[in-house]
Amino acid sequence: MNKPRIDNTIPGAEPELFELEKVSESAELNAAIDRDFGAATDNHTDGVSRRRWLQIMGASLALGGTTGSIITGILFEKVGGESAFYFSLLPIAAILFTLYLFKRKAVELGHG
User: What is the pTM of this model?
Assistant: First the structure.
């Protein structure tokens, strides 16, 4: 599946074209998706439009930013600026720890 792109500057070599429609209909890709996602692929729909997806992502980011600002404001008010700064390091540490766990699991499964 991970074929190297053929360099078209090599004499006699034809450039390899990756068309999304061609790749998305390949049996190899469908087998990989079925293997990775299993039964979840049975009820897959056409999805949402790009415009709708961007609207949902924008709303999600706005909600997350607003919530984070409110929590930070409350922390500043209750414990002071220096302590609020150190509290803000906790979610960052949690994210880094989670990424470490994901990476370790990927290596165990032979994907990393």
Answer: 0.43
